[in-house]
Amino acid sequence: MESPASEFALIERHFSRSPRHADVRLGVGDDAAVVAPTPGMELAITVDMLVEGRHFFAGTDADALGHKSLAVNLSDLAAMGARARYVLLAGALPDSDEAWIERFMHGFRALADLHDVELIGGDTTRGPRNVCITAIGEVPPGAALTRSGARAGDDVYVSGALGGAALAVAALRGNVALDDATLAHARARLERPTPRLALGMALRGVATAAIDVSDGLTGDLGHILERSACGAVVDLERIPSDAGVAAQLEGPQRALALRCLLAGGDDYELCFTAPSDARARVESAVRSAGVPCARIGHIRRETGLVVQDATGRALDALPAAFDHFAS
User: Fold this and answer.
1) Beta bridge partners of residue 241, listed in sequence order
2) Model confidence, pTM
């Protein structure tokens, strides 16, 4: 029986690759990477950890996990309006299963190559399966989008469609029955999210605040409201819902569908605000990025988030967004 590969053999075989860009002076293989940032640019740096059993199901396809592990970090850079440049990959694995690692890196590299992102270093060890990625992007000085710029009168927008990923989680947990096609679509939303990098960069100088929808619309928009010291009114009927969620909203599982739509998380769409007199500029940015966006509400001076139905009646209670330390 062939003995398991050593840590360094795994790194050399699956993670090392000659730098593709001249600005990467040293990549994987030394004690630290050395890069030369683009002159005149600021760095945007983010880190995210995905833990098996908490952020992804045991047995999740390795290729899909490689994609998602990178996508969630690129989504953070998108919310800042940054161009993604470099990533560091660290992880714990229960064993040195090279077939699993090869599939993981296939999904990881496919997304990295799509966005011209370079893996420049990382670490591996034995332990319960988890993946931790640090992503580094660049943005012109003073141009980074933040959570603190929303002002009364601004419009509130969201990209894509919400709730599909959470619907997949509910189905996989046995809380709702879906036909095969709907489940496959929802799982793709959960396991292979699309980071909205082009949209984030197009919104520089247009959006007043932005965040990615990772923990649910109510919670993530709430972070903008808290940092901006304001409130918002959102029209439920204007929130773009994933097709599977839209179908459930019309049936006996409406309460579950509402939770998926408003607080499900894992969508990795962008929620952003912009002045009402900038609607033409927003539409231009949206067209250039090729990402559908919907105007779902407005910012107001009074604090708090109100979600109202088609009659203008506020929902009695909003579902809680995902909490990494909740049971």
Assistant:
1) 162
2) 0.90
Mean pLDDT of 73-84: 98
Average pLDDT over residues 293-311: 96
10-24, 76-90, 184-198, 239-253: the lowest-pLDDT one: 10-24
> HSE on the CB side for 194, CA within 13 Å?
15
Q: Positive or negative CA dihedral for 211, 217, 223, 224?
A: positive
Two tokens, residue 9: 């053999």
Tell me the per-residue pLDDT of 126-154, one tens digit each, with 9 for 90 and over.
999 999 999 999 999 999 999 999 999 99
Looking at beta carbons, which pairs linking 57-63 to residues 24 or more positions away fall under 8 Å? 57/172, 58/129, 60/191, 61/103, 61/191, 62/100, 62/101, 62/103, 62/104, 62/107, 63/103, 63/104, 63/106, 63/107
| Tokens, residue 21 | 């860009």
Tell me which of 207-216, 231-240, 316-325 is least confident: 316-325
Are 49 and 131 in contact by the 8 Å Cβ rule? The answer is yes
Q: Domain extents for the chain?
A: 7-139, 155-308
* Buried residues in 89-125 as b, exposed as e (16+ CB within 10 A): bbbbbeebeeebbebbbebbbebbeebebbbbbbebe
Give yes or no for a contact between 51 and 92, defined as CB atoms under 8 angstroms apart.
no
Tokens matching residue 252: 């006996």
CB atoms within 10 A of CB 17: 13
With beta carbons less than 8 A apart as the criterion, state whether 135 and 200 touch. no
CATH superfamily of 155-308: PurM-like C-terminal domain (3.90.650.10)
CATH domain 7-139 topology: 60s Ribosomal Protein L30; Chain: A; (3.30.1330)
Tens-digit pLDDT profile for residues 86-112: 999 999 998 878 899 999 999 999 999
